[in-house]
Amino acid sequence: MDAVEAEFVKFARTIEPGLRVALVATHGVDRGLEATNDALVYAWSHWERVRSLDNPGGYLFRVGQRKARRHRLTPRVPWTDVAKNGNPWVEPRLSQALAALSPRQRQVVVLIESYEYTQREVSKLLGIGLSSVQTHLERGLERLRAALRVSDHG
């Protein structure tokens, strides 16, 4: 393995988990995983350009978004009902409530609440301002609470 290839492999191992989580949160499992792979293939094909970017993760997220949109006509796996997959501790209506959020709200809520990303990390990954992250988080959580009929006061 030459130095350029080793540099890319290190980059891909670092960026892939967050990229995958963000794209799966947006497009569902199958399409999100495919978009992640497409974005990493693009990164390798355009490595000279990608490696010089200030926010390569955010850029590759947008590449993955474009790739996923091109495959809209292919069958999509809907949000998995986690309660039916052997996780009785998960609210059965959560999958449906998450699916009802806007894609951006779902991305922000899943990344912050499920994967414990900071708002700053989400801002950088998605290429949006911190105030937008805060707004999407607040609105997404508000919609989830309403859909699940729970209070944020315990």
Q: State the domain count.
A: 2
Q: What level of helicity do the residues show?
A: 55-70%
Number of strand segments: 0
Radius of gyration: 17 Å
Tally the helices. Answer: 8
The low-confidence runs, each spanning 5 or more residues with pLDDT under 50, are: 73-84
* Proportion of residues in extended strands: under 5%
Spatial shape: elongated
State mean pLDDT (0 to 100 scale). Answer: 83
What is the H/E string? HHHHHHHH
| SS class | mainly alpha
Major sheet details: none
Separation, N- and C-terminal Cα atoms: 54 Å
Write the layout of secondary structure elements.
Layout: H1 3-27, H2 29-45, H3 47-50, H4 56-70, H5 94-99, H6 103-114, H7 119-126, H8 130-148
Helix pairs in contact: 1-2, 1-4, 1-6, 2-4, 6-8, 7-8
In short:
By secondary structure, the protein is an all-alpha fold.
Give a description of the structure.
By secondary structure, the protein is mainly alpha-helical. The protein folds into two domains: 1-77, no CATH class; 83-154, Arc Repressor Mutant, subunit A (Orthogonal Bundle), CATH 1.10.10. Helix content is 69%, strand content 0%. The protein has helices at residues 3-27, 29-45, 47-50, 56-70, 94-99, 103-114, 119-126, 130-148. Helix 2 (29-45) packs across helix 4. The longest helix has 25 residues, at 3-27.
